[in-house]
Amino acid sequence: MKITNARVIITCPGRNFVTLKIETDEGLYGIGDATLNGREKSVAAYLEDHVIPVLIGREASRIEDIWQYLYRGAYWRRGPVTMSAIAAVDTALWDIKGKAAGMPVYQLLGGASRDGVMVYGHANGNDIDHTVDEVGRYMEMGYKAVRAQCGIPGVKGTYGVAKGTMYYEPADSALPEETVWNTTAYLNHVPKLFEKLRGVHGPDIELLHDVHHRLTPIEAARLGQSLEPYRLFWMEDATPAENQESFRLIRQHTVTPLAVGEVFNTIHDCRELIQNQLIDYIRTTIVHAGGITHLRRIADLAALYHVRTGSHGATDLSPVCMGAALNFDLWVPNFGIQEYMRHTPETDDVFPHAYTFENGYMHPGNRPGIGVDIDEGLAAKYPYNSKQLPVARLNDGTLWNW
Ligand code: CS2
Ligand code: MG
Questions:
Q1: How would CATH label the architecture of 3-104?
Q2: What is the distance in A from the centroid of ligand 1 to the CA of 95?
Q3: What is the pTM of this model?
Q4: Any idea which residues carry the catalytic annotation?
Q5: Which fold has domain 108-367?
């Protein structure tokens, strides 16, 4: 089965998504998510200029060889743009392989290791009481796990707090919005949020929190200690992880589980964290970490060190990634949890899918491939709309980690 054509489809049903569609001489096609929030056109150009030309004529079944060709052959290896492009090709080829075999991708990987994929939703509020109510709303929807993010008194535009009634969408301006960050106010406030959450919702609901790279290692250690009475499922992105060693300091001071990795794009970004058991969950995701082929390698390494998967699943990852991720999650033996930020109805219309949510668990469905499609006619009705992610500054103007 030869690859005859490949096209990049950019659509914006509420936010931008980039999809790669690979077509073959046997009439089968596959799709892959190539969305990199705020850098969508960069990945589209990489695919169109440097990937699609070398795909045409290749054997679609040779997923591994094509992955190695695009990774080792790139010379300028790694990075979010390159690895998102490779991920889109990889996902589309697994989609094709599943369709050719008449099986969902999770069957090709080794079959289901569980009956359903536990997911967590995003609850956020302007203040503690609002956030507590929102967590309750997610519990009523059946979620067994909920991420809680709360406005910080005196801090305008706190990360993770939606500006309207819709879900939190960070890329919302043509140029980066300048937000303010105040670590002291944050460290004083977050423990109060989780104290109230446990007091109102009890000990069983799994509670997660995303620090979003904002703390130094010792500050993260302090936060982890202060949250121990409230037993979080995880504290995410506690500190920027380029220096993987910095997690050792956090680990020495707290038993709050640590999750990191949504911004990672290869196994090399997380090998030390995993091998030294400095984290408990690895957040790498199919669309940004080289696709199913590479994420499987990361998960297998993690399994040797008691690290479980906890893949990123924000709204800026398209339903195409979600479908592939749920196939992966159903199979992967050391599964931890899957993030699930729902998409807008318009997005769900552009990307019809087989996956379902019920009582806190999801399932990819049993359609051959990844179980997601793209309605190109509908996609064309939503033209690209350039948006950037914000930046953050401290009160004195120092550029900080958004
Ligand atoms: C966040 C993301 O979902 C998360 O854990 O870290 O929403 C992140 O802010 C966005 O994906 C950035 O585009
Ligand atoms: Mg995050």
A1: 2-Layer Sandwich (3.30)
A2: 25
A3: 0.98
A4: 159, 212
A5: TIM Barrel (3.20.20)
